[in-house]
Every structure is written in structure tokens, then in C-alpha cells.
Design a protein that fits this description.
The protein has 304 residues and is α/β, with parallel strands linked by helices. The protein has helices at residues 38-58, 107-116, 137-140, 160-170, 211-223, 233-237, 257-262, 265-272, 283-286, 292-295; strands at residues 9-15, 62-68, 83-86, 90-93, 121-124, 141-144, 149-153, 173-177, 194-196, 200-203, 227-230, 244-247, 251-256, 276-280, 297-299. It is globular and about 45 Å long.
Amino acid sequence: MNTMQAPRAVVMIRPHHFHSNPETRDDNAFQTLSRSSENATAESALAEFDAAVAQLREAGVTVHVFDDTGTETPDSVFPNNWFSTHAGGHIALYPMYAPNRRKERRWDVIETLKHSYRVQDVIDYSGLEQDNLSLEGTGAMVLDHIGRIAYVAKSNRADPVLLERFCTHFNFEPMAFDAKDSAGRDIYHTNVLMGIGTDYALICLDMITDTARRAEVKQRLEETGRRVIDLTMDQITEFAGNAIELTGKTRVLALSARALAALTAAQIAIIEQSASLLPLSVPTIETAGGSVRCMIAGVHLSAR
């Protein structure tokens, strides 16, 4: 089974003090305020997280869990933004837009990966935060590991110069585009509007504002052998694009229960030709503006 796009192992950060991050609310239109008390919200998020990990492990996915007991990192449950891993033994560390998200980077996570997997080098872009530049990992970039294309919705979370630098280092072709929601706001992270599996791609083409660019993106996805599943803006609001393909006992598409409920029977049928659906219920965590894809940092490294 080709696991290049769908890793067998993932890193997840267990949140003990989860809450919706005030520092990201201005540009993350997907965030909502929880109606529960902060303690109740944190407890719910922890329970959702533990259930999700159990389901992933039951499906045969290796999950490396790290606890975050700190109180200054409300978004730590979304580690895919501060690091990514790549075949050949490469790790990238990214500069984050919100100051409190910069505290999420943890060397113990990287050291554990070095211990369990073959790591050749760690390329650290995080110092560019000093220049107010950010490129928020696989939130800002949706990576086609097979076709070597980095799809990027332009935003303050994805600096174009940094994107070029990443693509040069990691051998990806950058494919950037303007994307807006129905209210005309920039899409803050590319991975809310698209996700790429081995044989299919989920994407809301309507959010790409330039029609010529929209056609180019669709064409590039099809050229790499993907069936394009065109999502509606309403489906994106339900986090239907925020999904990640993983390899366990079989290939699975991990997405939220809310996202699955938003998909049509026809869309589900296309996915199920290639992967089984693995819905995880994370409604509290979704109040922070991210869903299942954001919670999972794929490990594209070879085990030692």
C-alpha cells in the first residue's frame, strides 16, 4: 500500500487547559466561543481528545501522544502548524503568527521523533518570527507528497518568500492562490478548505477567487491522478475539508463527525473506493476554529 500521502504514525498533543485562543480570533472566522465555563470546556476537550486517540489506535494508526499541562498554549492541540516531517528524514519547524502559539514548539517532541525514526536534519524557520513572518506548517500548506506540490491559500499565516524557501528546501512546487469565504474574508489556513488523499482530493473550488487559478488548481490535482471532490462553502463551515488520510490496518480518512455528516452520499462513495471513513467527535475542540486535520501531525519518517 502506498503510504506516501497517508502516514502510519502521527503526533498529537493532549490538551489540559484547552480554550478558544483570543490571539487568533481576529483572522480565524471558524472560531466560536464556547458557552461552557473554561474548566468544563477543558474537560470536554480532553475527553474528546482521548476518545479520538483511542479510535485512531483501534484503526491501527500509531499515535505518539504528548501532554501539554501548560496554561499559556490554548491551541497546543493543533501541532500540525509548528512542525512537519518528510520522507528522507527531514523535519521543518515553522514561525507562528500569534505570539502565544510560538510557545507550542517543543524540543521533546522532536527528540522523541529522532529517537524512534531516522532524522537527517531539522530545518528551523522559527527565527523568522522576529521579522513578523509566518508559515504555519501543514495548516498554511496542504502538501501533495506524491506530486510534490504545496497548495497555499494566501494569508498572513503564509508568507510568500518563506513558502518559496520551504519549497526549495523540501522539493515542492508552490501553488498559491487567493481564497475567501462567503463573507469575503481570507481563509486563514489552507487545510480548512482542502485535504489531499492518495486517490482523491477534497476542496472547495468556489473559495478560490480567481477563476483561471481555480481551473489550474483543479487541473494540477487531476494530473496527479486525484478525483476532485468539490465541496460547498457550507460543507467547509462544517470542517469537511479538514481531514487527513492515514494508514492503519487499512487506509482511513480521519475527519470529524460533524464533517462526515456534511458530506453527500456521492462524495462518501468516492472516498470509500480508496479509504474507509473514520469520524472522530471533537465538537469542543472545533470551537477553537480547527478540526481533526489540525489535531494531527503526520509522521512521514522511516522507523529506526
